[in-house]
Amino acid sequence: MKIGELSRETGVAVRLLRYYEAQGLFTSRRSEGGHRQYGPEAPAAVARIRTLLAAGLPTKVIRELMPCFAGDGTQLQACVFDHLRTQYAELDSRIANLTQARTALGDILQASTRAAVHR
C-alpha cells in the first residue's frame, strides 16, 4: 500500500507517517519509482505507535518497544515490563512536579487577586 492509502486507512497525516519512519518506528520498501510501499502490517504498526504516543512515551522509547509486541494487539512482551515501569514512574514524577507548580501558581494568583481587591 502507498503512503496516501496508509494515511487514509489510519487517519494519520502523510507527514506524520514520514516522521514515524524517519524515527525508525516502522519501515517501508521503495517501488522502482521510489515511492514508499507499506506491507499489510503497517496499519497495525501505526495504531501501536499512536497508542504508545498517547501514553506519553517518546519516540526513542517507542522505537525500542516496537519489536516487543505480543500478538496483534497492544500487549507487550514481559521482557519490557521493567522499561514500562520506569516510564510510568517518570510520568508520576512529572505529574507530581506539575501539581506542585499548579499549586504554587494558584497561590500567587490568589494572593495577587486579594492584593488587587484591597487597593
UniProtKB/TrEMBL annotation:
Matching Pfam families: MerR_1 (PF13411)
PROSITE patterns listed in its UniProt record: HTH_MERR_1, HTH_MERR_2
Molecular functions per Gene Ontology: DNA binding; DNA-binding transcription factor activity
Keyword annotations of the record: DNA-binding
The organism of origin for this protein: Amycolatopsis keratiniphila
Protein name (database record): Putative MerR family transcriptional regulator
Domain HTH merR-type stretches: 1-68
Entries under Gene3D superfamilies matching the protein: 1.10.1660.10
Record SMART domains: HTH_MERR (SM00422)
